[in-house]
Amino acid sequence: MVCGNVGTVTTRARRGGRDPVRDLQDHGPSHAETPAEPLGAAPWARVRRVQLIRREIREALSPSALEVLFDHAELVVEGGEELGGRRTGDRRLFATVMITIDLGHCAGQVREPADEATARRVAELMEAEPRVHERLQSLAARELARLGSAEPEELSVTVEAAFRVEGTAMLIDVDAMATLARRRE
After folding, report:
1. Second label for 109, Cα 20 to 30 Å away, from 44, 48, 61, 142?
2. Of 85, 76, 74, whose CA–CA distance to 177 is shortest?
3. Paired residues of 50 in beta bridges
């Protein structure tokens, strides 16, 4: 009979599934295995494995956030009909819609602080958000229709919007122009 460690085989499974030699080849030495090197002197590590799933953090305004913001908006509308239009059959209407949304007024309904930094970030997100531009287009069409005693669907509307921030207030200036074609009989 043979005694001792003869015939004892240690496999990766018995050691917890890790092979230190292979790990060193795949990942390089750990900080515990190498002496400390000054910052900037470390060599670039080779990538032997690629990441399958790319993770990103994106910020966007939710539909409910837009509702809260526009529910607290103050509007000032100025405009009217162009005098002496280009063609006798068309009417042109112009309007400036000034929208003020103060985060201080909706602070009780949002999680973020109602400060200038948040207002700046929200304004940036609003400016990049297609739903905001659609809403501004719809709002301008409604106001132009009211000014011209027409239905919004009868108007061909173009809109330009400018976003800025003063303190905790976001200021959106919308310049809108609409053409209403008169029906020829």
Report:
1. 142
2. 85
3. none
In this structure, the number of other CB atoms found within 10 A of the CB of residue 104 comes to: 13
Full-model pTM? 0.66
Tokens of 54: 């790319």
> Residue ranges per domain, the chain?
63-181
CA distance 114 to 154: 40
How many residues are given for the chain?
A: 185
Q: Which residue has the tokens 């602080």?
A: 113
Strands (E), the chain: 74-81, 90-102, 155-166, 169-181
- From the CB of residue 126, how many other CB atoms can be counted at a distance below 10 Å? 22
Contacts of 81 (CB under 8 A, 6+ apart): 91, 92, 93, 94, 147, 148
Q: Which residue has the tokens 């297609």?
A: 130
Sheet holding 169-181, edge to edge: 74-81, 90-102, 169-181, 155-166
- pLDDT tens figures, 109-168: 999 999 999 999 999 999 999 999 999 999 999 999 998 888 888 899 999 999 999 999
φ/ψ of 184, rounded to 5, equals: -90, 135
Strands 90-102 and 155-166: what pairing?
unpaired
